[in-house]
Amino acid sequence: MERDSALDHDFHSAWGSVYTNHSTVGDKETLPLWEQYAVNKGAVDRKYQLLLNEYTDLFSKVLGGYYPISMHAHATDSLMPTTIASLILNTAATSPLVLDSPTLRPKADEKPEDAGLRVRNFALSLLGWDETHVLSPNFVVADNIYGAGYGPLAHTSKEWEINAIAAGPKPVVVNMREADEETLNAQFAEAKAKGCIAVVFDMVSTEDGIVMAPKKFGMIKACCARNRLLLIVDETMTAMRCGAPFAFQRPEYVREAAEYQPDFVIFGKGIGVSGIAIGFGGVITQILAYTKPEDISQTIRFWRALVSRPIRLPILLEALSILRASVKENWPEQSEQIGNAIRDVLHELDPSTRAPGAIRGIGAVITINKEVALRYRVMCASRRRSPWVRLLPKLGGATPTREELLRRVFGQDSKEQRQVLTREAELSGAIPLWCFICGIEATSKDWCRACYLSFCDNEVCVQAFHRHACV
Ligand SMILES: [Zn+2]
Ligand SMILES: [Zn+2]
């Protein structure tokens, strides 16, 4: 009896945005809502606020006290300095420090612009900002961070195609891996003076899979606090996949400079929708004195009121189901198990991967040399010029055994499973989703029917693809 019929060699998982191959539509809390939505959309629509609140509460419970405050179509959209600046100004302006203060809070008998000016000046002094931070806010980023597909962070991309379309202020790039505390502090201070409002990094480098050292994480937090810079962790790839709800919630990180937590976390659509989550014990947010749940829901409501509806209803239903599945199937714990199972199989098949640093990442974010992925014909999240690729196996269901991984993914015997996928694709006119070489959408109709692999029309990929040895 097959324990997980959904297991195959697609470890690309739509850049990690697919967490499971199991349908999350059918959970018993959500299915009745879908059925009702099909026949009486209005009735479900009228529960929108109720469902949105349920989602917000569940998210904060599952993700260690972080609230999904701002929703965006793509994680990159949430990493805009101007969006983050407005968000923290709103969080300060609607904080108990303002609304509970007899001198600061807006009064019915004063001119609205007087109230506006007073609240704004208070927020600026609290954040240590001047007009530069308001008019041209910027980020400090780690030098090995993912250079997003577009916008300001694309300036840091190592791929020229991305770099060529970068727009917006160039982030201040800091080598956080090597800098000692004194250097880091000096660089943060200089960046803050020039208009930087936040420090952004990821716990597992998208560039080369190297994991943030716990001591370094503590040092960055302390330097952020000293310079009143927001701390933003990009968990688009790592949420639920690294043995904890967010990777920085692993015990070895929590211990370091425990009095400070990240202010914002960027999450990706793998957990239903992308956006920004806020925690109120952050380096900066803890200054704002949010302790009561009603104050927290109020500021979230104020921010969300700025857009017509933060998430469309079907997405909201799906996001709820995904969160419930993550709890029921304990994805964080499962990510450790599946990560270990895959590492063991790679060690067995290819002893060179036992060398220190040959397999990187944490849990189910597994970074390996591209050559190894090519040899075992695994589809993975890669980039054209990087020697490192990421395996992002799906969670949910039973953790695959060594035998299942060999038979369905890595071994010679995976031929049979690949044939099943080929037959299914030929019947529907589909092709394998991802370019085996560079990871972007595959386009070739001339794909390999034996291996169930395809490629894009880039010349480098076409040539490299035709060198692969079939299973
Ligand atoms: Zn390609
Ligand atoms: Zn082949």
Could you explain how this protein is built, in words?
This protein is α/β, with parallel strands linked by helices and 471 residues long. It folds into 2 domains: 147 residues, Aspartate Aminotransferase, domain 1 (Alpha-Beta Complex); 283 residues, Type I PLP-dependent aspartate aminotransferase-like (Major domain) (Aspartate Aminotransferase, domain 2), CATH 3.40.640. It is built from 20 helices and 12 strands. It has a 7-stranded mixed beta sheet with strand order 2-8-7-6-5-3-4, with helices on both faces. The chain has a 3-stranded antiparallel beta sheet with strand order 9-10-12. The chain has a two-stranded parallel sheet with strand order 1-11. α13 links the parallel β6 and β7. α18 packs across α19. The radius of gyration is 23 Å and the shape is globular. The site of one zinc ion has 8 residues, from loops.
The third-level CATH topology of the largest domain is: Aspartate Aminotransferase, domain 2
Question: Quick one: how many beta strands?
Answer: 12
CATH level-1 class of the largest domain = Alpha Beta
Per CATH, the superfamily of the largest domain is Type I PLP-dependent aspartate aminotransferase-like (Major domain)
- What is the general shape? globular
Bound molecules: zinc ion
Unreliable sequence segments = none
Number of helices: 20
Strand count, sense and barrel status of the largest sheet are: 7 strands, mixed
Oligomer: single chain
**Percent strand:** 5-15%
Query: Given the helix and strand composition, which structural class is it?
Result: alpha/beta
Alpha carbon gyration radius: 23 Å
Number of domains: 2
CATH architecture annotation of the largest domain: 3-Layer(aba) Sandwich
End-to-end CA span: 24 Å
Percent range for helical residues? 40-55%
Mean pLDDT: 93
Spatial sequence of strands, sheet with the most strands: 2-8-7-6-5-3-4
